[in-house]
């Protein structure tokens, strides 16, 4: 009777897609954990101008990557309600069950391979009830089991633009030891590693990245613009639709005029051209889905990323005060900083509120209390680390009156890491070094700060941030393979000379 039941289950499973058979189910060791993967077979393409239609074929793995042991532990418990039966390898062999039949029953590929190599063992195969699958029958999709995983992936991406406003999280690159433990949107996307812009305080995200510049390609290879990647020469300039370099520099790029956003189509594209794509431009901002802003101009008050990462990043920088333990002090600062804050004088236009809208709604028309009544420290900093436009930390004295805040949101002092932005040292008078940062009075950098509104403040420091990124103080280059720029005093690899990127 049991054998008959197994046969019936096999017949009923033949209509279920075998691409639900997971692989890498037996690799579960932290810290670099990637397991329980499915392959999606996807096709994309397009027509070249005056040419034929080009198709690109992709086999893309989708895997689990839990952040911690606790999440992994939750996946290790059996749910017997999802299991049709438990069968040992010995029993399967007696019934002449083949490894191909196990795959038809959605057994993980690792289990089928293990059974094929040693079917005399006492290992257990868990046969799952439909629509469950996985080594312990712990997974199912919200679609019919007759739909392939590839179709599920495609449908999910096609629907993404409709639900994007309700998505409040994204993926984070977790393979740095002492950095990037923050939550989205402040955590780093994998595209922000070795992008020429230091994000970690200890520089870990850019450590050893200059070694990529030393890569030399053979005469039969094409050198991609960034990352030291070499591809066969015949793959370069072969078709705009067929991109082989991670940065896409092997093909001509589409230009989108009057837009800060690069690759806007990537919201709904699930293949290499977006999901495995970095930018060919230095100092850009990754939206985290293949889209980019042309420069790291954050915080900003205008959303460009379709997934809102830029505006959420800006809001986090400007309003996150978790480093201040006193709640009353936090509220007093937020009220003084953002109440009645408009671009122009007079009543505020709701369209101008940008990332401050939720804060302004909370403190609108309220009389703000002086910081000195609630804050025991001498000053308050935002953000917690010098990440304002990638370099700066704003310092506000707590003996400052609410009327002074309303007149101008400009900070009293500016702090920055002089090693990362040495060019500013020539224009300031350093008053102190706090937590390894060089600090100066705001008047060293900006005149007439008492009349500056928030938008002017951000615009001014955006320019300072660009100056830190694009200029230096190097009088010569230590490495002979680098070119010394006479005006910016920066050292760049020789292969980047005359590449059209400033």
TrEMBL record:
One GO-annotated biological process of the protein: vesicle-mediated transport
Keyword terms, alphabetized: Disulfide bond, Membrane, Repeat, Signal, Transmembrane, Transmembrane helix
InterPro entries recorded: LDL_receptor-like_sf, LDLR, LDrepeatLR_classA_rpt
PROSITE patterns hit by this protein: LDLRA_2
Superkingdom of the source species: Eukaryota
Disulphide bridges, residue numbers: 194-209
Alphabetized Gene3D superfamilies for the sequence: Low-density Lipoprotein Receptor
Xref: CDD domains: LDLa
Signal peptide limits: 1-18
Bilayer topology annotation: Single-pass membrane protein
GO cellular component terms, semicolon-separated: plasma membrane
Subcellular location: Membrane
The protein's name in its UniProt record: Uncharacterized protein
């Amino acid at each position: 009777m049991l054998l008959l039941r197994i046969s019936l289950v096999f017949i009923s499973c033949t209509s279920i897609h075998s691409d639900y058979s997971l692989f890498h189910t037996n690799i579960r060791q932290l810290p670099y954990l990637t397991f329980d993967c499915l392959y999606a077979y996807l096709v994309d393409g397009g027509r070249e101008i005056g040419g034929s239609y080009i198709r690109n074929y992709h086999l893309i793995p989708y895997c689990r990557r839990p952040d911690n042991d606790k999440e992994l532990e939750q996946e290790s418990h059996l749910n017997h309600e999802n299991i049709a039966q438990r069968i040992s390898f010995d029993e399967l062999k007696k019934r002449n069950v083949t490894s191909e039949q196990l795959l038809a029953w959605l057994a993980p590929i690792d289990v089928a391979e293990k059974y094929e190599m040693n079917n005399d063992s006492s290992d257990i195969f868990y046969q799952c009830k439909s629509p469950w699958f996985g080594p312990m029958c712990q997974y199912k999709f919200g679609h019919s089991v007759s739909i392939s995983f590839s179709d599920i992936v495609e449908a999910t991406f096609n629907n993404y633009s409709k639900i994007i406003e309700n998505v409040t999280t994204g993926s984070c690159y977790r393979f740095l030891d002492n950095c990037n433990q923050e939550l989205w949107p402040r955590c780093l996307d994998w595209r922000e590693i070795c992008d020429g812009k230091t994000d970690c305080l200890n520089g870990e995200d850019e450590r050893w990245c200059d070694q990529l510049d030393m890569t030399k390609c053979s005469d039969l290879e094409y050198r991609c613009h960034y990352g030291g990647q070499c591809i066969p020469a015949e793959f370069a300039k072969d078709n705009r639709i067929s991109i082989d370099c991670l940065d896409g520099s092997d093909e001509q790029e589409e230009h989108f005029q009057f837009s800060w956003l690069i690759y806007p189509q990537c919201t709904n594209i699930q293949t290499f051209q977006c999901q495995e794509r970095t930018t060919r431009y230095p100092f850009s901002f990754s939206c985290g889905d293949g889209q980019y802003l042309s420069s790291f101009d954050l915080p900003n008050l205008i959303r460009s990323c379709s997934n809102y990462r830029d505006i959420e990043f800006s809001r986090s920088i400007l309003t996150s005060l978790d480093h201040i333990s006193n709640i009353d002090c936090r509220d007093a600062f937020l009220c003084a900083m953002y109440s009645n804050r408009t671009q122009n004088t007079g009543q505020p236009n709701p369209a101008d509120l940008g990332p401050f809208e939720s804060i302004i709604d909370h403190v609108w028309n309220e009389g703000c209390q002086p910081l000195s009544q609630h804050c025991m420290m001498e000053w308050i900093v935002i953000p917690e680390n010098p990440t304002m436009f990638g370099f700066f930390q704003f310092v506000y004295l707590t003996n400052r009156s609410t009327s002074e805040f309303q007149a101008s949101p400009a900070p009293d002092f500016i702090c920055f890491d002089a090693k990362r932005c040495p060019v500013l040292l020539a224009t300031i008078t350093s008053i102190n070094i706090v937590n390894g940062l060089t600090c100066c009075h705001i008047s060293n950098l900006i005149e007439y700060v008492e009349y500056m509104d928030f938008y002017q403040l951000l615009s001014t420091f955006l320019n300072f941030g660009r100056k830190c990124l694009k200029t230096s103080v190097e009088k010569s280059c230590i490495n002979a393979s680098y070119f010394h720029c006479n005006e910016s005093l920066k050292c760049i690899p020789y292969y980047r000379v005359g590449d059209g990127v400033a």
